[in-house]
Structure formats: structure tokens, C-alpha cells
Amino acid sequence: MRSRFGLRSRLRSLASSVVAATVGLVGAPAVLAAPAVLAAPAATGLQLSSASFSLKWSAGPFADTGEPIAEGSPMVANLDTSGPSVVVGDRAGYLYAFHIADGTPVAGWPVDAGAPVDSTPSVAATPSGTEVFVGTGNAYFPNSGGYQAFAADGARLWSQRIADPVTDYAPSAGVQASLAVATLQGQTAVFAGALGQMSSALSATTGVPLKGWPFFSADSTFSTAATADLYGTGRTDLVVGGASTAGRALGQIYPQGGHLRILNSEGGLICHYDTDQEVDSSPAVGAFLAGGATGIVTGTGQYWPGAADTDTVEAFDTQCHRVWSTRLDGVTSSSPALADVLGDGALQVVEGTDLGSGGGSVWVLDAASGRPLWHTAVSGRVIGSVVTADLTGGGYQDLVVPTTFGTDIVDGRSGAVVAVLSPAGFQNAPLVTDDPDGAVGLTIAGYDGNNDGVVYHYEIAGSNGAEAVGAGSWPMFHHDPQLSGVAGAPPLAPVPPCEVPVAAGPGYHLVASDGGVFSFGPPFCGSTGGVRLNQPVVGGAVAPSTGGYWMVARDGGVFSFGGASFHGSTGNIALRQPMVGMAATPDGQGYWLVAADGGVFAFGDAGFDGSAGSYPLTRPAVGMAATADGRGYWIATADGGVFTFGDAVFQGSAGSAHLSAPVVALAEDPATGGYWLAGADGGVFAFGAPFFGSTGGLTLSSPIVGITPTEDGGGYWLVAADGGVFAFGDAGFHGSTGGVALSRPVVALLGTEG
To answer: Do the beta carbons of residue 363 and residue 375 sit within 8 Å?
Structure first.
């Protein structure tokens, strides 16, 4: 069982090299001279300079010397009847709230969160009123804090800590990532990864983890998730970055580096992409790829020396395929913005870079291709995220760039630095607001020369606040108070139903021996029910990250439907024994076929790790299952024997047991790395996996022919030859053909999600 391999020391190293050292570097922020006024290219609109920004109010310095406001950004919230307020936390563990109109403290605030706050507060309206959510604990103090919620009057509503598995020898409960708010499982919820090995989605009203959560993320998460219906299914999906230390856990081998993951609302993995550098940056989502397709863009991090993905911005499609990667001039751990910087109606990617002692830059990239459009040096290192707003009324976005020596205002079209506000150092994102008086407001929060927390609120005379934060803007960290990370326009386009990754929607398909398919929940993508087959269908598999499914016939012929690509078959090979089943690789780009003699045939990106074809089997093979990382597989035989190949771990078998009925199928448990065997009488044998129930004590009208796990391993389905479906654990019952007169028996259930 993989633990975190000394990740606590890694966290402290990261904190000291990036955060603490930065605080030290800016112990005495330089007072930079205002640059010359540079005219914006637009023919109309305000002409900005440092003199355009008037300080309306300030707060601090606070009594938090050495533990000031750092990576947590200021956020807007409506807490009382006095208009909008700004909420921000510091490393001393306090959350402050000030009215935007005049800077007066909101009644009941500040509040003591009890642990450092390096996350950005998120805000949601619930039946009980406005709530503020925050992650507490950070890389300095990974064992303190957790998930917390506060009422508008500052009262603590709930606090939740998610425990790491007992196998983690250095457990951490702190949450440095910010809590994104979304509708999950029909209710308002919050989601964030933690500094330990788990990530969780919680009820916004109670703090109780939702069904299917927590998710085993295996390593620390600093990235704040983007939340969006990526596939047009009516369900919210979660896009999050993370770190990865080389090792093994729960039957899966993790590489050194990081990853981008898309999770479904019940804690299931839809798809992932492994990078060789950790992804500390928070992904942004928008309709920016070719043809208006939905894309995901993120920076990376800097922990792993020499990693190829260091200093890059990466773009992905909704199947976790990398579309482009662009190398910049420094570390890209700050989170990108998606905004109409050029005023042309399209989205551009805005990313700040950290050059260490060399300062920092801000870059604007063409979002569809990653091609740099312009970049410019700014007054210091860029650790916090850049935000955008139409500050001048010029019809395009200007950039507000936080640096360790001030806040730079950069013209979006020309890239010219037109103003520098430099009373403090900043490692977070600024906040642009439509102020109560109608002007553009700018709140910046950081630390002064004594490392005390400070907040400053500016306004731009003669500006239009509503226009500034309108269409095409990215006015705060992760776009909005819910931290959705989604560009407001253009809208996300749905994915064709049969190209939706299987874990993005609940349900399953039943497959009959004539190739007929009965879909319950997911879309019907085709069948061979009307085709004359040389041999009957014996099994099938869903294509995990591409959508669609395959079926395999007794002669090894493979039939592909929807987004499942054909990678080859044995249909034209004289087999010694007939095929009995198949399994898919995790990315859906390959599959294995297994014959009754244990012979294995690999196609696409499926690796051949051996077979039981040369073993003297006492009973025929009945099926196979792949490990979670696709680097191995198990084969089961009718007498309950289990054979392991590649990284599949042997955890026991029923080979020596007296069985009342033959074993007919094997399924892998993605949550533990164990597996289940199912007998024809519905008996279930669990090895290294939890037992959720069986039909062994029922009188069945037809024998069981298959067992299929839910995507998160929290349950399984059994399916009988008459199409009867039996659900256990978190597997949901979505329908069956148990009461339908079938022309051919059902041979498999292809599950998508519980």
C-alpha cells in the first residue's frame, strides 16, 4: 500500500522555497516609480495611469506579523444589508470581512478559523442565507485545519476533517486548496482536495461528505477545482490538478510528477492525464478549442527538478487529451485566466510567471493553439493569479497582475504596464468589483514591509463598474465567488452523447449473445442485433474516457460503437479455444481479449503481460479484468482460480473451495486493488475487496453471467442470463430486461457509473 513517501518534508520544502522565502524577499516592498502614461490602443475609453487609482480605504496592518495574508485571495460576498463586502484570510488563522463601500468591518467578523488560511473563500446562497467556505491548514501546518463553513454573521456552521487511510504514515488533514461551490447530487456542495491523500465533496449545509466521497487522490492537492457540466449531461463535473509521487497504492502504480483529473459528482474518475511536473495551478474551463469545443487550461508547478512540463501552460480536451503545451519564461503555478483580452470576442489565456530572483512576467496566449500573442515583464514575481477587467471602457480586457513588489495594471491589447500600485507584496489574486457607487473597485490584500497583513481598496474615477466585470472578464480568483473556474462566454457546447466518457453518466448497458444492446441510463450507441454473426457475442467493455463500447464474439471478432475505436481482433485467426471475454485499458485506446485456454490477445495501447495459455488449466478461463492503471490484469477460471499478470496482485482465489456453482466472472475493485469472483448461482467471493452482498441465497430464474463494479468501487452489479440486474453497495438499479422475453440470453453488463 502506497503511502506519501515523505510528502510532509516535501510540503515544508515547497513552502519554504516558494512561500516563506518570498515573504522574506518582500519584507520591504520597493516603492516603484509610476511609469509614464501609455495610451491604450482604443480610440475611446479612459486613459489609465497610477494617478487614475484613488485609495478609498485600507485595513491593517493586522496583528499577524510573520503570518500575514499570503496565497488566499480576497473575495466578494453579500453578508448584510450594507452592500457587498470583501472577505480574506491570513496565515494567523483569521478571516476578515470589510464593507466595500467604506471599509468598515462586518458585524461578527473577523473570525478565528483555528488554522492558517491560504485558500480563497468561496461564497454561496443557501436556504439559511449566505455562507462562506474556506479550507484551513497549509504546507507549514498540514495536520491542522480542514473544511469549514461560516454564516454571514461569522458564526461557524460546520467543520470537517477527512482522514487519510491508515496506511499513510504521515497523514495530513489540512486543506490549502480553495473550496469550489457546485450543485452535486442535486444539492449545493463544496469540493476541494486536501494536503493528504484524500479529496472530498461535502454538503454545503451540513459538511457531511456526499455519496461516493472521499476520493483517493493519493498525493497532496493545492489546485482549486473548476466545476462545469463538461458533457451536456446535466451533471456537474470537477476538473482538478494534483501532485504525484512515484509508488503504488490500491493496485495502481503512480508515476513521479502530477496530473489533471476530471471527476464525476459521485467521486468517480472520468479521465486523467499524467504530467511529469506536479499541477499546483488551478484549471480554467471555457469554449476555446477549435470549433468552439470545451477546453481546459492549467499551469503546472516546480517541485520536480528537470521535469519537461515545468514552466508550461497545458490545454486539454474533455477526454483528458493534451491539445497543446506552451513553454513560458518561468514557473506557471499561478492559475490562468480565460478572458477576451483583445476585444475580438474570443478567449485568450492569461498566465503570470515566477522567475525567482529574476522577477516575473505576464503572458497572453491564443487559447485555441497556445501561440504566444505577447508578454511583458512586471514589477516582481507572479505567484498569485492575474485577473482581468475592462477598466477603461475600451471594449477589451486589461490585466491586473499581483507581484511580490506591487500590483501592475497592464493594457490588454498593447501589453504596456500603465500603472503600478505598490504599497505591499502580493501572492494572491486581486479582486475587481462593480462598487456600490457604480465605479470600478480594486481590492488588493497582502503584506507590508513588516510582514503584517494589509488590505487596500481603490477606485477608478469616471469608470463603469458593471462594464468592467461584464462579458469576457475574469475579475477575481477562479472567475466568480463560487470559484467555478469557468469563463462566462461563449457557453460550453455539449459533447455528442456517444462520445461522453462512460463515468460521466450513471447507468449500464446489457449485451445479449446476438449483439443486442439494452441501455439503461447511458445513450444507446448501436448493436449487432440486426447483423448475422459468425459466432455469438460472449462479452464486452465500455471505453472509459472516450465513450461508447465494444463487444467481442466467440471467434474473437470485435465490434465497436460510439467513441470506442476499433483496434484489432482475432476474427481471422484460427483459435485453439473460443474467446470468453475482454477488458479495456483505462484511456479507452486499447483492449485485451481472453480465450477459454487463458490465451491473451492485446490490441491498441493494451500491453501484453503474459497469459495462462501455456498453463495446464483444470477448468476453462471465464473472464478477465484489468488493473486500475492498465499495467496488468487478472484471469479467472471456472473453478475459482485466479492468475495474475503485470502489476496485478494476487489476493486469493476460490480454487481450493468447494463451489456450489462454477465461477462465471471476475471484476476488479478500483478502490482497493482487490477483486471479486461471481458464481453462476450469484455467490460473490471478495479478495482484498469489501463484500457488498450476493444472490447466493435467492432462487434465480436464470444463472448469473457477470459481475461489474461501479466506477468508484463502492459496489457492483450482478446480471443474469435473462437480463435481471441485482445492485449492491452504491450500485444503482436503473432497469433490466428481467421481465422481457429475449430472443437470446444476456452475456454481460457494461457499467458506466453507479
So the answer is: yes
